[in-house]
Amino acid sequence: MNENGDELTPEEAKALRNLAEGEAPPPALERATVARLRERGLIAPPLRVRTAWLLAAAAGVALFCAGLFLGHRRPEAPSSAEGPRFVLFLYDAPSEPELSDAQMQERVSEYRNWAIGLRKAGADIRGEKLKPEGRRLGSASPGDGPLGGYFIVSAKDWGAAMEIARSCPHLKHGGTIEVREIEKT
């Protein structure tokens, strides 16, 4: 073979002629030829190596996706066997002045810390702050102030639900809390 690697040695040329006549190539020639073709990207690796690599890559992607799903999923609602659930509707004080962004962040943190404290004490609680605008249907009259948010809590009975509601910081800010039991469906 010359320095460009394009010409065959006399031994390789003889083996190639024999191959054309139906003889099997010498094992060393076959290995060298396959290696050169792989180096140049003209043939793919054996199927089992590629399959194993693809399976490993697919498993890695599946584990990554499972981690994302588990890390971002919301806790499931408690089953009805865990006792009744209640919703606490938080109506803002009608005379409360509009809060600045910093004051609103501070208020949200206060409610979040309250809920975290209840969770640490073993309560099941979830909540959301609502946007100020909304739409009503029917003739129901709104509370004194706008509905600002809600919490859903599990409690053993009405007394425990009312105790949780009384501890909510919303009352100290002049708001009203309406407690309702969620019907089992």
Description:
This protein is α+β, with helices and mostly antiparallel strands. It folds into 3 domains: 7-42, no CATH class; 47-73; 80-133 and 143-182, Dimeric alpha+beta barrel (Alpha-Beta Plaits), CATH 3.30.70. It is built from 5 helices and 4 strands. The chain has helices at residues 10-20, 27-39, 47-72, 101-120, 158-166; strands spanning 85-91, 125-129, 147-154, 176-182. The protein has a 4-stranded antiparallel sheet, with helices on one face. It is rod-shaped and about 100 Å long.
Summary keywords:
Alpha-Beta Plaits, 185 residues, alpha+beta, 3 domains
Helix-strand layout with pairing:
Layout: H1 10-20, H2 27-39, H3 47-72, E1 85-91, H4 101-120, E2 125-129, E3 147-154, H5 158-166, E4 176-182
Antiparallel strand pairs: 1-3, 1-4, 2-3
Summarize the structure.
The protein is of the alpha+beta class.
Query: What is the CATH first-level class name of the largest domain?
Result: Alpha Beta
Write down the Rg.
36 Å
Please identify the structural class as seen in this structure: alpha+beta
Terminal Cα span = 82 Å
Strands of the largest sheet, in order across it? 2-3-1-4
CATH superfamily of the largest domain: Dimeric alpha+beta barrel
Spans of at least 5 consecutive residues with low confidence? 77-81
CATH fold call of the largest domain: Alpha-Beta Plaits
Taken together, the total number of domains comes to 3
Please estimate the helix content.
Answer: 40-55%
Mean pLDDT: 76
CATH architecture of the largest domain: 2-Layer Sandwich
Rough outline = rod-shaped
Number of helices: 5
Total number of beta strands: 4
Relative strand content: 5-15%
Major sheet attributes:
4 strands, antiparallel
The secondary-structure element order is HHHEHEEHE
